[in-house]
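Entry 0007
Protein: Protein-glutamate methylesterase/protein-glutamine glutaminase
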Amino acid sequence: MTRPVSVLIVDDSITARSLMTVALRQDPQIHVVGTAATALEARDMIIKLQPDVLTLDVEMPQMNGLEFLEKIMRLRPMPVIMVSSHTARGADVAIRALELGAVECFAKPQGFPAALPYQGLCALVRHAASARIRGKGVDDRPLAPAVNATPMRDPPLVAIGASTGGVEALTEVLGSYPADCPPTVITQHMPAAFTDGFARRLDRLCAPNVRIAEDLMPVKRGQVLIAPGGAHHLQAVRRNGVLMARLYAADPVNGHRPSVDVLFQSVAHHVGRHAIGVILTGMEYDGARGLLAMRQAGARTLGQDEESSVIYGMPKAAFDLGAVERQLPLDRIAGGILRLAGQLSEGTPSTRSIIATPETLA
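Output (structure tokens):
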């Protein structure tokens, strides 16, 4: 986009509106065209100002952010960034908003740090402006039923990376997983304030057990482990022949912590060919080199296609690098994973890795 991204800020707090305006005006590629205190006020300003991106407070009087988002996605689909408090309710509502079509969620700063409050919001606004937005109704379709899968004797490890648009994508993929799914580890770019709520929601919606990964937690079939946001990278490592999750404290990689590249590189090193790598919607290129390392190690790899991606950045970078064996639309990703897992589960003993089972953990 050659002209500046136009933004409308919607928040019932005059302090929050002022701080966001100051932060966004630091970026010459962003133009704040207005601010609104309520959803009703914002509705009229959207019609008049036609902003490229909307920042929307989760908790507001009269009509909350979730209700307003549903109306926006039904009547005038546009990129929306949800701005939420650190409360459990705020996090849960923000995650639901991402499923309904919001592009990103941003956690309101706590207190007044020395650094400029709302730093990081500029990058989200620029990313959101390039998102592919699809309208949705209030009564969204239910999750797809679990894909029927042949029982697996020795299921491979599945590693998935996602960023912008990943909440919706992962909800669809894992919603099609059977309860006895291949062991799965996921890095999703997401603020620390929201990852716990995201895992809890997926656990309620999906057949497998979904949890936030803990350090040296065994990786088991029927379980999905999600990288916690913020302080650590997630790796898959082998300890005494058993695959485990490892939380690795280090600097951000490709601007992210956790990083998809760090996860994929660890799978390439510790699992090799008995693994499946999947890269979903997201901005920029995190995960591309790691997925290439997985493919070079003999793993099978899938990428989300352009048409079904909210942002075709990470999948495109991986595809252009030769890391993606096959591109699929989102609604075929789960089936593709399970078909490949069924093929790999029948591999010869020399190609198999030890996945944690009740017997190996005893």
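Curator remark: Residues 137-142, 348-362 have pLDDT under 50 and may be disordered. The first strand starts at residue 5 and ends at 10.
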